[in-house]
Design brief:
454 residues, Multidrug-efflux transporter, ion transport, xenobiotic transmembrane transporter activity, antiporter activity
Length: 454
């Protein structure tokens, strides 16, 4: 059921929101890890192709980010103010508006996917793998975006367990379907599969996501407590709400776009080192996603608590929530840092068996883990901005961290000194330090405490 987060113990509220969110994302990340494991059984170039597509996809993901961040602030603040009718209206608009935007984006991605893949790699096997995987993901983008909205609607009204259950069930289904669709003979049981190769991994993802959407959407229609949407509401446009959905999160959308664009530029630099380095990028990016789970859990949980408390004008509770999120998320990430620095070769060997990929990946895993620990503090501080709807600092922090710190360093390393790819991985630490410094300055000024978007 929905939960009022404007009262009660803050630590209990934070863990109530964060742990189920982490659980759901952990199962999703487990899928990503297993997905990469199976793709790695095909070839390192298949991993590289999926990694390149993921870089392209995140350039489009900006649209989901804009509306998603806006909806977090709008839903949580209206719910915190006990305006349940408007809360339901915002949820309805979020789902349908995001799906419509995703439909346009998917058409554009399908049209331009091949030239974009060719921009990053000239290896035909890498390009083909990326296309086989990417076309499926692109066609069904509206379903992916709408599914994310059902999760957000539940979390921001204090229901943290249902999204975890739905995400978990979807991830388990995905894991089961992966080898069924990818291989002609299903490994381990020797039964006949569909033999779709890399595209089979995407098909499995599409099916499991459709199941998650139907489940989550059905629950919102059925209603829980004061939260219940209607089919009719999905067909009535609300210009005032839709305008806020596109504008509140716009700075955050610019932030994601600039971050994704910087990743694309970084991918271009790394592509010059060859498909082996691209394969390392594919593995390490999934591992970093796994390590990022505690940060996502505490950030989303904190953003909801902050939004509700700002809506109820309980400023001190909102501020304490941010500080608790910073402490707890960094403690959770420490475990990953320890494992990554003690067993990096074992971790890489789980995904690929090519010695050159493993050798390069060992250093990347170690260095990357420390960047996640630094990010824990920055992400926690920025949860205050997202809960308030004050998203401009997130945009500026990304620009500073990626474009004024990371990429200039990478350009010097690769173009001026022509150093090995090992030195490029240190750029992630440099970027996170710059972002943390900026976030800390803005947080301390306190403008987010007065921000309201209802």
């Amino acid at each position: 059921m929905s939960r009022d987060l404007t009262q009660g113990n803050l630590t209990k509220n934070l863990f109530y929101m964060a742990l189920p969110t982490m659980g759901g994302f952990a199962l999703q990340a487990l899928y990503d890890v297993v997905d990469m494991f199976w793709i790695g059984r095909i070839s390192a170039k298949a991993i590289a192709g999926v990694a390149v597509f993921s870089t392209v996809f995140w350039l489009i993901e900006v649209l989901n980010e804009i509306i998603g961040v806006s909806s977090i602030s709008l839903i949580s603040q209206n719910y915190g103010a006990k305006d349940y009718e408007r809360t339901n209206r915002v949820i309805e608009q979020t789902i349908v508006f995001k799906a419509f935007v995703a439909l346009i984006a998917s058409l554009l991605l399908v049209l331009f996917l091949k030239p974009l893949m060719s921009f990053f790699s000239k290896d035909r096997e890498v390009i083909q793998a990326g296309l086989e995987y990417g076309y499926w993901r692109s066609f069904f983008m509206p379903i992916f975006f709408a599914t994310y909205s059902t999760y957000t609607a539940q979390r921001t009204t204090g229901e943290s367990r249902l999204p975890m259950i739905i995400m978990g069930a979807s991830a388990v289904l995905n894991i089961i379907l992966d080898p069924v669709f990818m291989f002609e003979k299903i490994p381990g049981i020797n039964m006949k599969g569909f033999g779709l190769g890399v595209s089979g991994a995407a098909v499995a993802t599409v099916i499991s996501t459709c199941v998650a959407f139907i489940w989550g959407f059905g629950l919102l229609l059925k209603g829980r407590g004061e939260i219940k949407i209607s089919i009719r509401g999905l067909f009535r446009l609300d210009r005032e709400i839709d305008k806020k959905l596109m504008t509140i999160g716009l700075p955050s959308g610019v932030e994601v776009f600039m971050r994704s664009l910087s990743n694309a530029v970084l991918m271009k630099f790394l592509a010059a080192y060859g498909s082996t380095t691209l394969a390392v990028v594919g593995v390490v990016s999934r591992l970093m996603g796994l390590a990022f789970i505690p940060l996502m859990g505490f950030s989303m949980g904190a953003s909801t608590i902050i939004g509700q408390n700002l809506g109820a004008n309980k400023i001190e509770r909102a501020e304490k929530t941010v500080l608790l999120a910073a402490i707890y998320s960094s403690l959770f990430v420490l475990g990953f840092v320890v494992l990554a620095n003690i067993f990096p070769e074992t971790i890489m060997n789980f995904f690929v068996h090519e010695p050159e990929v493993i050798a390069e990946g060992v250093s990347a895993v170690r260095i990357g883990s420390w960047s996640i620990l630094i990010a824990a503090f920055a992400v926690a501080l920025m949860s205050s901005f997202f809960g308030a709807g004050y998203t401009l600092p997130a945009m500026l922090s990304s620009i500073i961290g990626r474009w004024f710190a990371q990429l200039p360093y990478v350009a010097i390393v690769t173009l001026l000194f022509k150093l090995p790819s090992l030195y490029v991985w240190f750029s992630f630490i440099i970027a996170e330090i710059a972002e943390l410094a900026y976030a800390a300055i803005v947080f301390s000024k306190g403008k987010w405490k007065e921000y309201r978007v209802r």
